[in-house]
Amino acid sequence: MLLKIGELASRTGLTIRTLHHYDKIGLLKPSIRSDAGYRLYDSADVKRLHRIQALRRLDLSLAEVASIIDGEGADLQDVIADQISSLDQQIAQSVELRDRLHELSSLLQAKHEPNLEYWLSTLEMMSLLGKYFSRDEILHMRELESGDKGKIDLRMQPMVIAARALLDQKIPANDPRAKQLAQKWVLTMNDLIPDPRLLKKFSTMHRKEPSLQALSGVDDEMMDYITIASIEVRYDIYRKYLSEEELKYFRPSFVKNAENWTAIFSEVRQRMVAGLPPEHPEVQAQLLKWRALFMDAWGHHLPTMQKVRAIHEKEPDLAIGGGMTPSLMVYARQGLALLEQNASLAGKTQ
Predict the structure, then answer these.
(1) pLDDT digits (tens, 9 = 90+) for 109-151
(2) Which residue, of 200, 219, 237, is where some domain finishes?
(3) What does the H/E/C string look like for 324-343?
(4) Do 172 and 259 have their domain in common?
């Protein structure tokens, strides 16, 4: 049985143009040419074409189809695995789009006459969140916002305006007004995003996305200002108990390591939530970093560090910022005590 190209196209549902293309790239060449130059396809050609169509239904490229049929390409299992991975990404993108549309629909229903700027800024914010947070993390933050805590932008907006006013007036970060604002800022962010891991991602997103800084009004200058002012809040507390000599390492260390502290809080909290005991090797490894930061802040001076531990018992306000919570502090203290105990025992055996 020999079929002309038109007959083959009719039987398979393909166009003549497609079959010409297959011939041109060598994917399906007719076995016979008539004296008049017509393409004629035999049963082997038809069988090959059916295989091509079957593989194309897997959304493979023509090059991948050719390599599989001719036995020259990747293993079919690898190809299928790649396709599954690609489909998983498409599904995730579709789910993300559905979530965005649901949220936009809710916003449109809640706000009777939203203007275009509001609508577009909301859409852009959701797009940025998708770059830094998983879908589960975004849903978790939405749950927090839907409770009695309120939306992040609405609660932070008055503080952002106040911070901009202080910056425009060139009010220093150690001014009482700046310190009062920083304290309120940090407490509010801790309340809105209590997980330090999410808080760190949120901060990173702000640092890396100029468009988000334009949307929120919170730029690098403002974030640095609030960070330094919050350090000044702690400095004032320590100054009630420590001399200037004992405090000389504090400011530069905390300015340098502000984000490192948040990262450590995040890592330790993850392990606490996972149910790992303070003596677990993973926890102890993170607490080694915690202790290194603590020692850096106090110039590796043991008497000062002992004083600071006692101060923390009296001054709970020192725990503000970076996702530090009372439960995390208790957990960390237990682990640090074990760390020092093990170090002491190791020293005695040497």
Answers:
(1) 765 555 555 555 666 666 777 788 887 887 777 777 666 555 6
(2) 237
(3) CCHHHHHHHHHHHHHHHHHH
(4) no
Strand 39-41 vs strand 32-33: parallel, antiparallel, or unpaired? antiparallel
Structural domain boundaries, residue 263: 240-350
pLDDT reading at 156 higher than 70:
yes
> Cα–Cα distance between 257 and 293 in angstroms, integer?
7
Sheet holding 32-33, edge to edge: 3-4, 39-41, 32-33
For residue 33, the one-letter residue type is R
Same domain, 150 and 186: yes
Helices and strands, counts by H and E, the chain: 16, 3
- In contact, 203 and 262? CB cutoff 8 Å: yes
The last residue of a domain, from among 112, 138, 165: 112
Distance CA 80, CA 87 (A): 10
97/131 same-domain check? no
User: How many domains does the structure of the chain reveal?
Assistant: 4
Q: Tell how strand 3-4 and strand 32-33 pair up.
A: unpaired
* Token pair for 2: 């020999």
Mean pLDDT of the residues in the chain:
84
